[in-house]
Design a protein that fits this description.
It contains ten helices and 20 strands. It is of the alpha/beta class.
Protein backbone atom coordinates (compact mmCIF):
# COMPACT_ATOMS: atom_id res chain seq x y z
CA UNK A 1 0.00 0.00 0.00
CA UNK A 2 1.12 3.56 -0.66
CA UNK A 3 2.22 6.05 1.97
CA UNK A 4 0.41 7.27 5.07
CA UNK A 5 -2.05 9.98 6.07
CA UNK A 6 0.40 11.93 8.20
CA UNK A 7 0.48 14.94 5.86
CA UNK A 8 -3.30 15.18 5.35
CA UNK A 9 -5.48 17.56 7.34
CA UNK A 10 -8.05 15.38 9.17
CA UNK A 11 -10.73 17.93 8.24
CA UNK A 12 -10.16 17.05 4.58
CA UNK A 13 -11.06 13.38 5.08
CA UNK A 14 -14.50 12.42 3.76
CA UNK A 15 -16.29 9.24 4.88
CA UNK A 16 -15.93 6.57 2.22
CA UNK A 17 -18.39 3.89 1.23
CA UNK A 18 -17.93 0.31 0.03
CA UNK A 19 -15.61 -1.27 2.60
CA UNK A 20 -15.76 -3.70 5.47
CA UNK A 21 -13.71 -4.71 8.50
CA UNK A 22 -11.73 -7.94 8.45
CA UNK A 23 -11.25 -10.36 11.33
CA UNK A 24 -7.51 -9.69 11.37
CA UNK A 25 -8.00 -6.02 12.24
CA UNK A 26 -7.52 -4.65 8.74
CA UNK A 27 -10.14 -2.81 6.68
CA UNK A 28 -10.85 -3.96 3.12
CA UNK A 29 -11.79 -1.52 0.39
CA UNK A 30 -14.52 -3.05 -1.77
CA UNK A 31 -14.60 -0.34 -4.42
CA UNK A 32 -12.49 -2.01 -7.09
CA UNK A 33 -11.19 -5.54 -7.78
CA UNK A 34 -7.89 -4.78 -6.03
CA UNK A 35 -9.65 -5.18 -2.67
CA UNK A 36 -6.87 -3.34 -0.81
CA UNK A 37 -6.55 -4.42 2.82
CA UNK A 38 -5.33 -1.62 5.02
CA UNK A 39 -3.87 -1.08 8.44
CA UNK A 40 -4.39 2.21 10.27
CA UNK A 41 -3.11 5.17 8.23
CA UNK A 42 -2.43 3.21 5.05
CA UNK A 43 -3.62 4.23 1.59
CA UNK A 44 -4.87 1.91 -1.12
CA UNK A 45 -3.04 1.56 -4.42
CA UNK A 46 -5.22 4.36 -5.84
CA UNK A 47 -3.60 6.66 -3.23
CA UNK A 48 -6.80 8.61 -2.49
CA UNK A 49 -8.76 6.02 -0.49
CA UNK A 50 -7.29 5.29 2.91
CA UNK A 51 -7.97 3.91 6.37
CA UNK A 52 -8.47 6.43 9.14
CA UNK A 53 -9.44 5.01 12.50
CA UNK A 54 -11.72 2.07 11.85
CA UNK A 55 -13.17 3.35 8.59
CA UNK A 56 -12.37 4.09 4.95
CA UNK A 57 -12.01 7.72 3.91
CA UNK A 58 -11.64 9.66 0.67
CA UNK A 59 -8.80 12.18 0.82
CA UNK A 60 -9.66 14.21 -2.31
CA UNK A 61 -13.28 15.19 -1.76
CA UNK A 62 -13.79 18.75 -3.01
CA UNK A 63 -10.24 18.96 -4.37
CA UNK A 64 -9.33 19.02 -8.05
CA UNK A 65 -6.26 19.11 -10.26
CA UNK A 66 -7.98 21.82 -12.31
CA UNK A 67 -11.05 22.60 -14.41
CA UNK A 68 -11.22 22.98 -18.19
CA UNK A 69 -13.98 23.51 -20.69
CA UNK A 70 -13.46 20.97 -23.49
CA UNK A 71 -15.41 19.87 -26.54
CA UNK A 72 -17.45 16.82 -25.61
CA UNK A 73 -15.83 15.01 -28.54
CA UNK A 74 -12.54 15.12 -26.65
CA UNK A 75 -13.80 12.68 -23.98
CA UNK A 76 -14.28 11.14 -26.63
CA UNK A 77 -18.05 11.10 -27.14
CA UNK A 78 -19.24 11.55 -30.71
CA UNK A 79 -22.88 10.63 -30.18
CA UNK A 80 -23.68 12.64 -27.05
CA UNK A 81 -24.72 16.28 -27.61
CA UNK A 82 -22.16 16.81 -30.42
CA UNK A 83 -20.40 20.15 -30.56
CA UNK A 84 -21.24 21.17 -27.00
CA UNK A 85 -18.81 22.32 -24.30
CA UNK A 86 -18.28 20.13 -21.25
CA UNK A 87 -16.79 21.22 -17.93
CA UNK A 88 -14.06 18.67 -17.17
CA UNK A 89 -12.07 17.91 -14.04
CA UNK A 90 -10.25 15.19 -12.15
CA UNK A 91 -8.47 14.72 -8.85
CA UNK A 92 -5.30 12.70 -8.17
CA UNK A 93 -4.50 9.01 -8.16
CA UNK A 94 -5.68 5.97 -10.12
CA UNK A 95 -6.52 2.33 -9.41
CA UNK A 96 -4.58 1.08 -12.45
CA UNK A 97 -0.84 1.30 -13.03
CA UNK A 98 -0.77 1.71 -16.81
CA UNK A 99 2.80 2.13 -18.02
CA UNK A 100 1.52 4.04 -21.05
CA UNK A 101 -0.63 6.55 -19.13
CA UNK A 102 -1.22 9.70 -21.17
CA UNK A 103 -2.32 11.71 -18.10
CA UNK A 104 0.36 10.41 -15.74
CA UNK A 105 1.12 13.83 -14.23
CA UNK A 106 -2.41 13.79 -12.76
CA UNK A 107 -3.35 10.15 -12.36
CA UNK A 108 0.04 9.09 -10.97
CA UNK A 109 0.40 12.13 -8.76
CA UNK A 110 1.33 11.52 -5.13
CA UNK A 111 1.54 15.22 -4.32
CA UNK A 112 -1.54 16.93 -2.98
CA UNK A 113 -0.16 20.35 -3.86
CA UNK A 114 -1.24 19.50 -7.43
CA UNK A 115 -4.83 19.70 -6.20
CA UNK A 116 -4.97 23.44 -6.53
CA UNK A 117 -8.70 23.96 -7.08
CA UNK A 118 -11.19 23.44 -4.29
CA UNK A 119 -14.83 23.18 -5.23
CA UNK A 120 -17.93 21.79 -3.60
CA UNK A 121 -20.49 20.01 -5.78
CA UNK A 122 -22.94 22.92 -5.93
CA UNK A 123 -20.18 25.31 -7.04
CA UNK A 124 -19.17 22.98 -9.88
CA UNK A 125 -22.75 22.72 -11.12
CA UNK A 126 -23.20 26.48 -10.90
CA UNK A 127 -19.95 27.04 -12.81
CA UNK A 128 -21.04 24.69 -15.56
CA UNK A 129 -24.30 26.57 -15.99
CA UNK A 130 -22.53 29.95 -15.92
CA UNK A 131 -20.07 28.85 -18.60
CA UNK A 132 -22.77 27.53 -20.93
CA UNK A 133 -21.84 23.84 -20.61
CA UNK A 134 -24.42 21.14 -21.23
CA UNK A 135 -22.61 18.63 -19.07
CA UNK A 136 -19.82 17.93 -16.58
CA UNK A 137 -17.14 15.27 -17.10
CA UNK A 138 -15.21 13.34 -14.47
CA UNK A 139 -11.97 12.72 -16.34
CA UNK A 140 -8.15 13.06 -16.43
CA UNK A 141 -7.97 10.39 -13.73
CA UNK A 142 -10.50 7.63 -13.09
CA UNK A 143 -13.59 8.91 -11.26
CA UNK A 144 -14.49 5.56 -9.71
CA UNK A 145 -11.81 6.18 -7.08
CA UNK A 146 -13.51 9.42 -5.98
CA UNK A 147 -17.00 7.90 -6.19
CA UNK A 148 -18.46 9.84 -3.25
CA UNK A 149 -17.39 13.19 -4.69
CA UNK A 150 -18.49 12.30 -8.23
CA UNK A 151 -21.92 11.14 -7.06
CA UNK A 152 -22.49 14.34 -5.08
CA UNK A 153 -21.42 16.46 -8.05
CA UNK A 154 -23.74 14.46 -10.31
CA UNK A 155 -26.66 15.08 -7.96
CA UNK A 156 -25.94 18.81 -7.94
CA UNK A 157 -25.71 18.80 -11.73
CA UNK A 158 -29.00 16.97 -12.15
CA UNK A 159 -30.73 19.57 -9.96
CA UNK A 160 -29.62 22.22 -12.47
CA UNK A 161 -30.54 20.26 -15.59
CA UNK A 162 -26.98 19.25 -16.45
CA UNK A 163 -25.75 15.89 -17.67
CA UNK A 164 -22.75 14.05 -16.20
CA UNK A 165 -20.14 11.99 -17.99
CA UNK A 166 -17.68 9.44 -16.59
CA UNK A 167 -14.42 8.81 -18.44
CA UNK A 168 -13.30 5.57 -16.85
CA UNK A 169 -11.40 2.33 -17.24
CA UNK A 170 -14.40 0.52 -15.78
CA UNK A 171 -12.34 -1.25 -13.10
CA UNK A 172 -14.92 -1.35 -10.33
CA UNK A 173 -16.78 -3.93 -8.24
CA UNK A 174 -20.43 -4.83 -8.68
CA UNK A 175 -22.07 -2.94 -5.80
CA UNK A 176 -20.25 0.39 -6.21
CA UNK A 177 -20.65 0.06 -9.97
CA UNK A 178 -24.42 0.13 -9.58
CA UNK A 179 -24.27 3.20 -7.35
CA UNK A 180 -21.77 5.06 -9.52
CA UNK A 181 -23.44 4.58 -12.89
CA UNK A 182 -26.93 5.22 -11.54
CA UNK A 183 -25.87 8.88 -11.40
CA UNK A 184 -24.19 9.07 -14.82
CA UNK A 185 -25.82 10.01 -18.11
CA UNK A 186 -22.94 8.97 -20.35
CA UNK A 187 -19.57 7.28 -20.15
CA UNK A 188 -16.52 6.55 -22.21
CA UNK A 189 -14.96 3.29 -21.11
CA UNK A 190 -11.29 2.72 -21.83
CA UNK A 191 -10.93 -0.86 -23.04
CA UNK A 192 -7.16 -0.92 -22.93
CA UNK A 193 -6.62 -4.20 -24.75
CA UNK A 194 -8.31 -7.51 -25.27
CA UNK A 195 -5.99 -9.98 -23.58
CA UNK A 196 -5.45 -10.82 -19.94
CA UNK A 197 -1.72 -10.66 -20.60
CA UNK A 198 -1.92 -7.04 -21.71
CA UNK A 199 -3.82 -6.01 -18.58
CA UNK A 200 -1.48 -7.89 -16.26
CA UNK A 201 1.75 -6.78 -17.91
CA UNK A 202 0.99 -3.11 -18.55
CA UNK A 203 -1.80 -2.23 -16.10
CA UNK A 204 -1.35 -4.64 -13.16
CA UNK A 205 -5.02 -5.47 -13.55
CA UNK A 206 -7.42 -7.95 -15.15
CA UNK A 207 -9.54 -7.81 -18.29
CA UNK A 208 -12.72 -9.52 -17.10
CA UNK A 209 -13.92 -6.82 -14.65
CA UNK A 210 -13.79 -4.27 -17.50
CA UNK A 211 -15.80 -6.55 -19.79
CA UNK A 212 -18.28 -7.05 -16.94
CA UNK A 213 -18.69 -3.28 -16.64
CA UNK A 214 -19.34 -2.93 -20.37
CA UNK A 215 -21.95 -5.68 -20.34
CA UNK A 216 -23.54 -4.14 -17.24
CA UNK A 217 -23.80 -0.74 -18.93
CA UNK A 218 -25.46 -2.27 -21.97
CA UNK A 219 -27.88 -4.63 -20.25
CA UNK A 220 -28.65 -2.98 -16.92
CA UNK A 221 -28.55 0.79 -17.46
CA UNK A 222 -29.73 3.60 -19.73
CA UNK A 223 -26.26 5.20 -19.70
CA UNK A 224 -25.08 6.20 -23.17
CA UNK A 225 -21.56 4.85 -23.54
CA UNK A 226 -18.76 4.70 -26.06
CA UNK A 227 -15.49 2.76 -25.96
CA UNK A 228 -11.90 3.88 -26.50
CA UNK A 229 -8.88 1.71 -27.19
CA UNK A 230 -5.41 3.27 -27.34
CA UNK A 231 -3.46 1.21 -29.87
CA UNK A 232 0.16 0.68 -28.84
CA UNK A 233 2.58 -0.64 -31.47
CA UNK A 234 3.52 -4.24 -30.74
CA UNK A 235 1.29 -4.54 -27.67
CA UNK A 236 -2.40 -4.55 -28.61
CA UNK A 237 -2.51 -3.63 -32.30
CA UNK A 238 -2.42 -7.01 -34.04
CA UNK A 239 -5.14 -7.87 -36.54
CA UNK A 240 -6.08 -10.90 -34.46
CA UNK A 241 -6.59 -8.96 -31.23
CA UNK A 242 -8.50 -6.15 -32.93
CA UNK A 243 -10.70 -8.69 -34.70
CA UNK A 244 -11.42 -10.56 -31.46
CA UNK A 245 -12.26 -7.37 -29.61
CA UNK A 246 -14.56 -5.94 -32.27
CA UNK A 247 -16.34 -9.27 -32.69
CA UNK A 248 -16.94 -9.39 -28.93
CA UNK A 249 -18.29 -5.82 -28.92
CA UNK A 250 -20.64 -6.55 -31.81
CA UNK A 251 -21.93 -9.76 -30.24
CA UNK A 252 -22.13 -8.74 -26.58
CA UNK A 253 -22.86 -5.00 -26.77
CA UNK A 254 -24.36 -4.61 -30.22
CA UNK A 255 -23.31 -2.88 -33.44
CA UNK A 256 -24.35 0.63 -32.38
CA UNK A 257 -21.82 1.17 -29.58
CA UNK A 258 -19.27 3.67 -30.95
CA UNK A 259 -15.64 2.55 -30.77
CA UNK A 260 -12.69 4.96 -30.87
CA UNK A 261 -9.23 3.74 -31.85
CA UNK A 262 -6.73 6.37 -30.69
CA UNK A 263 -3.02 6.88 -31.29
CA UNK A 264 -0.42 6.27 -28.60
CA UNK A 265 2.43 8.71 -28.10
CA UNK A 266 5.53 7.86 -26.02
CA UNK A 267 4.87 8.78 -22.40
CA UNK A 268 5.28 7.81 -18.73
CA UNK A 269 7.15 4.47 -18.63
CA UNK A 270 6.87 3.63 -22.33
CA UNK A 271 8.93 6.36 -23.95
CA UNK A 272 10.84 3.85 -26.05
CA UNK A 273 7.76 2.80 -28.05
CA UNK A 274 7.15 4.74 -31.29
CA UNK A 275 3.92 6.65 -31.88
CA UNK A 276 1.06 4.76 -33.47
CA UNK A 277 1.05 5.17 -37.27
CA UNK A 278 -2.15 6.60 -38.73
CA UNK A 279 -2.29 3.54 -40.97
CA UNK A 280 -2.71 1.32 -37.89
CA UNK A 281 -5.79 3.26 -36.83
CA UNK A 282 -7.26 3.05 -40.33
CA UNK A 283 -6.61 -0.68 -40.41
CA UNK A 284 -8.27 -1.16 -37.03
CA UNK A 285 -11.25 0.92 -38.14
CA UNK A 286 -11.65 -1.24 -41.25
CA UNK A 287 -11.53 -4.43 -39.15
CA UNK A 288 -14.15 -3.12 -36.75
CA UNK A 289 -16.46 -2.09 -39.57
CA UNK A 290 -16.01 -5.44 -41.30
CA UNK A 291 -17.10 -7.14 -38.06
CA UNK A 292 -20.37 -5.26 -38.06
CA UNK A 293 -19.65 -2.21 -35.91
CA UNK A 294 -21.47 0.77 -37.39
CA UNK A 295 -19.54 3.60 -35.77
CA UNK A 296 -15.78 3.18 -35.58
CA UNK A 297 -13.62 6.28 -35.20
CA UNK A 298 -9.96 7.23 -35.18
CA UNK A 299 -8.47 9.72 -32.72
CA UNK A 300 -5.31 11.65 -31.82
CA UNK A 301 -4.61 11.98 -35.55
CA UNK A 302 -5.94 14.26 -38.26
CA UNK A 303 -8.37 12.03 -40.11
CA UNK A 304 -11.60 13.67 -41.24
CA UNK A 305 -13.03 10.43 -42.62
CA UNK A 306 -12.16 8.53 -39.45
CA UNK A 307 -13.67 11.22 -37.25
CA UNK A 308 -16.95 11.62 -39.10
CA UNK A 309 -20.27 9.87 -38.48
CA UNK A 310 -21.51 7.95 -41.49
CA UNK A 311 -24.99 6.59 -42.04
CA UNK A 312 -24.82 2.79 -41.67
CA UNK A 313 -27.71 2.53 -44.11
CA UNK A 314 -26.57 4.52 -47.15
CA UNK A 315 -23.06 5.70 -46.24
CA UNK A 316 -23.86 9.41 -46.29
CA UNK A 317 -21.78 11.70 -44.06
CA UNK A 318 -24.21 12.83 -41.36
CA UNK A 319 -21.76 14.55 -38.98
CA UNK A 320 -18.51 15.71 -40.54
CA UNK A 321 -15.63 16.46 -38.19
CA UNK A 322 -12.24 18.10 -38.63
CA UNK A 323 -10.52 17.36 -35.35
CA UNK A 324 -13.19 18.61 -32.91
CA UNK A 325 -14.86 21.06 -35.29
CA UNK A 326 -18.19 19.99 -36.76
CA UNK A 327 -18.07 20.75 -40.48
CA UNK A 328 -21.23 18.95 -41.60
CA UNK A 329 -24.56 18.34 -39.89
CA UNK A 330 -27.26 16.45 -41.76
CA UNK A 331 -29.07 14.63 -38.98
CA UNK A 332 -32.83 15.16 -38.93
CA UNK A 333 -34.59 14.09 -35.75
CA UNK A 334 -31.74 11.69 -35.05
CA UNK A 335 -31.97 10.00 -38.43
CA UNK A 336 -30.46 10.09 -41.90
CA UNK A 337 -32.56 12.37 -44.13
CA UNK A 338 -31.64 10.34 -47.21
CA UNK A 339 -32.64 6.83 -46.15
CA UNK A 340 -34.32 7.26 -42.76
CA UNK A 341 -31.87 5.11 -40.79
CA UNK A 342 -31.91 6.11 -37.13
CA UNK A 343 -28.54 6.89 -35.55
CA UNK A 344 -27.93 5.66 -32.02
CA UNK A 345 -27.00 8.41 -29.59
CA UNK A 346 -28.24 11.45 -27.69
CA UNK A 347 -28.75 14.28 -30.16
CA UNK A 348 -30.39 17.68 -30.19
CA UNK A 349 -31.94 19.25 -33.34
CA UNK A 350 -28.81 21.30 -33.97
CA UNK A 351 -25.23 20.73 -32.79
CA UNK A 352 -23.25 22.97 -30.49
CA UNK A 353 -20.60 25.30 -31.90
CA UNK A 354 -17.88 25.02 -29.26
CA UNK A 355 -15.40 23.62 -31.76
CA UNK A 356 -11.89 22.62 -30.72
CA UNK A 357 -11.39 25.23 -28.02
CA UNK A 358 -10.01 24.22 -24.63
CA UNK A 359 -10.25 26.78 -21.86
CA UNK A 360 -8.96 26.42 -18.33
CA UNK A 361 -11.29 28.01 -15.81
CA UNK A 362 -11.38 28.77 -12.11
CA UNK A 363 -14.55 27.70 -10.37
CA UNK A 364 -14.52 30.66 -7.99
CA UNK A 365 -14.46 33.08 -10.94
CA UNK A 366 -17.62 31.52 -12.40
CA UNK A 367 -19.72 31.38 -9.27
Amino acid sequence: MNGSLDAVDPAALFPGRHWHALDDGRVQCDLCPRLCRLHEGQRGLCFVRARHGDAMVLTTYGRSSGFCIDPVEKKPLNHFFPGTPILSFGTAGCNLTCKFCQNWDISKSREFDRLTDRADPESIAAAAVASGCRSVAFTYNDPVIFLEYAVDVARACKARGLKTVAVTAGYICEEPRAEFFSHMDAANVDLKGFTEGFYQKLCSAHLQPVLDTLVYLKRETAVWFEITTLLIPGENDSDAEIAAMTQWIAEELGPDVPLHFTAFHPDWKMRDIPPTPASTLSRARAIGRSNGLRFVYTGNVHDEAGGSTLCPGCGATLIGRDWYDITTWKLRDGACPACGTRIAGVFEPVPGDWGRRRRRVGIAALT
